[in-house]
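Sample A.
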Amino acid sequence: MAEPLFALRRFFDAGGPILGVIFLVAVVLWMLIIERYWYHWRLFPRELAALHGRWRLAPCPDRRLAEKMRFKDLSVLRQRLTASLPLIRTLIAVCPLLGLLGTVTGMIHVFETMGFSGTGNPRAMAAGVSMATIPTMSGLVVALSGFLFSIRLQRGCESRAALAADTLTREVCMGCALDGAAALETAGNKETHNALPTPSA
């Protein structure tokens, strides 16, 4: 157990302080990605089912008002589906820039070593080269993996939003159809009642 921890510590020491910043950004990024997947798989189906049940139990008789309510409910669902996605994209874009910053700081360390001891100390120069290359590699790995999952999240948002729109549109049409059938039945009863002969005194 101590050997992997020692290797991990040596890796972070070779990468310099920028590698620690990239690690913190990666932790925040993956926490947000896992939270989004948790919402898509566990919470969103419950919210959609609750919304579907509410529309089925209390349909809106007015078609224009029903469309406005449907648009409002869909807007709320889309906002919840796409929450944290802009922040995820921002963190993905920041990771390569942090890696580039690590490259610059590592090269500065190499030049300082060369200016102090010349080219006769390859061990000191290797430390600067490691500080320049490891953060770049780490930033690119975090950015590429996060970019892949962000694309899948975006597609999941679009498909779930389309599913919610189809469900609510179907409920609006069913509610208006039921209301129209009830109105026709009421009108037919009135006509039948008016057609009946009035009893004579």
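Sample B, a different protein:
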Amino acid sequence: MAGVTGLLLAGCADPTTELADARTRWQDQDASSYTFTLAFTCGDEEERGTYDVEVTDGSVTNVATVGDTPRASFAELRRHAGRTIDGIFDLLEGSTETITEASFDGTTGIPQTISLSQTSDGSEGEECFALTNFATQ
């Protein structure tokens, strides 16, 4: 796997450019059907967990809990973890929260780790997630 581009967006000179460059690399992949694992690693206890996400023709078609993540209805899973990779970029670009940390695959642009906070120092309302196991279908 190619190198990972890591950045601290809250302190970055131009985080918009970093995010746009990663999204361009992702769009260059031209992937509309794929799977990945999404792990929520901080934030509210009830929202932590790991989910396998399946995307077909650009839409989330399946979300499944992994391991000891509490089971929920598909609607609840989709609300919480049912984002496409484009949807994750949309979240980052439209976030009112501060992106305190982000890393992207250096070749594909896929977000690998993301931390969001209601404050620029990460002291309140933190939400963290990681994407792994990406595969095209």
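Observation for Sample B: The beta strands are 4-7, 34-40, 49-56, 59-65, 98-105, 111-117, 127-136.
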